[in-house]
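Obj.: predict assembly geometry.
Materials: sequence records (below).
Method: joint structure prediction, all chains together.
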Amino acid sequence: MYYMGIDVGSVSTNVVLLDGCLEVIEEIYLQSKGSPIKSICEGLEKLKGKYDSKQISGVGTTGSGRNIAAAVTGADIIKNEITTHSIAASYMDAEVQTILEIGGQDSKVILLRNGVISDFAMNTVCAAGTGSFLDRQAERLGIAIGELGNMALKSKVPVRIAGRCAVFAETDIIHKQQLGYEKEDLIAGLCYALVRNYLSNLCKGKEIKDKVFFQGGVAANQGIKKAFEDILDKEIIVPEHFKVMGAIGAAILSKEALENERKKTMFKGFNILKGKISTDSFECQDCPNHCEVIRIYSNNTMIGCFSDRCGKYQISDAKSKI
Amino acid sequence: MFFFLYIIGLVGIKSISTVLNAENVRIKEAVSIKIGIPGGLLYHRYATFINTFINELDIECIFSIETNREILDMGVNSCVNEACLPMKIFHGHAVFLKNQCDLLWIPRIMKCKNSESICPKFCGLPEMVMSGTKRKEGVIDYPLYMDRKREVRHYLKKLSENLGCNENKALRAFKKAVISYGQAEKGIWDKEYPFIIFLAGHPYNIYDKFANMNLIDKLHSYGIGVITEEQVFDNNKEEEIKHLMKRPYWLFYKNNYGAGKYLVRNQKINGIVYISSFSCGIDSITIEMLKNDIGDFPFLILKIDEHTGEAGMNTRIEAFADMLERRRIH
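Observations (raw structure tokens):
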């Protein structure tokens, strides 16, 4: 009896498998590379050999691509990433009161009181201070993204860098680079800038209480963790499965939902990988909104449809509310 | 109220068209002049008034359609890049109308209420639109002070003259418009939902379904009803801003801050959703002050801009609905 959680984010696609006691037994972290369906299939492919379709008792999807993932796999529950992250964190440790989460395109802070979300904030239209921003800067400095954190820890004097906007930060880094600052100090400065920006954007007026969890892909970066600890003057805990917390939360929710409603899973089985999954998109000309409609097909049968404002292309049994 | 008027007087024989200057329109013959009314910005609030007035004048008139992608695209292409989304949408409506009417009504709103100010972009709206849409003439661009009835009457009299209507007719239309506006239901107060939230923001963000991606319907689908600022009495709002160090002079500030705080303090709502256009200066202050003053209370900020992807907004609304639900259970 296993529960599967799939988190399709802007940068990574994560698949986890939990056993009946909700212990993580499989954890797959893949780059989305702009093609979520391909990476979902890649994730399922890795599980296919080891597990039988019948062993999967529930599937939950989350992340910005949760509806696509649900259409492809036949999910039992589709949940936003804020809820799933907080479910996973409070399951891991009931005393968590603050979750700092930084992903590829968004960053969020979630406040939990007695295991219930009491407040949350998410970055607005700007993606400054998220994973993709770090990615870009690492690339510019010619460093692998995985190295960034360790290099930052070596710094003795972090350079002050403007973190308000990714474009300004980059200009600032170039200036300081030309002045001859060490790479380590620049990177450490970048980590502090990102954390300052995160705190002033999202955490203003919010009470950061212990325990503080730091999760999402960026939590791999030790430099950021240290910057949080220095600025907040609190212990920051990076949970073991920090990269896939969203997927874990989705899996937990699928178990909860199925048990509450005493239903069987709608998982389509690993056989979906045998068929051909394809997409097509077109601009609907029926009204001046010109929605860019996307349709997903499995063996030429439509299994999902997105981005039509009026909903006329939706298949009737779509589980997504909106 | 927004009045955009473009005057292109098509006088006499159809092929001869004379461009009339808004400040000095002379009607030589009894020819009907077609007025174009853009359905953007505060049209959303004063639609009843404007529609009744125009109807009563019994003149040719064209309204722009509901905002859609084409209108937005036209607006983005004709408006300065730094402006906020509702300004761009207004430009789109103006472009939509500009070749279909003789007079384009662009209200230069200076004031909505006594001693309260409005966003300065409203005061320079005609210039912005004229420069963006490349229509320098045939625009009704005189200033409109809505804080005094006399000023509004004067404005509308002048407008009617430009439209070739006599003074008596204009007065009658004005009176009827005042009555129908007074009788019209303003704002929203949903009563049959498990949750109710205060939907804060500028009227043109709240009521423009395209700009806010059908926000109200989305909230309803999660069992969340909506109350808007119009449903809170002015004196209740005034009461809430009395303690502030200085009297705020922004109309939208008072409406949103005052109503929000009143509703929270009197436990009339489960949460606040603030819909705000990216780069809005007034909202940047209102949101922070309201957030600071209500303490631990569910508050969701939704920023809207030109992007049409709905995923980000859906995620936030869904998470907010989950939060309300789980807070209630525990």
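Conclusions so far: The two ends of chain A are 31 Å apart (CA to CA).
To do: check interface contacts against the pulldown list.
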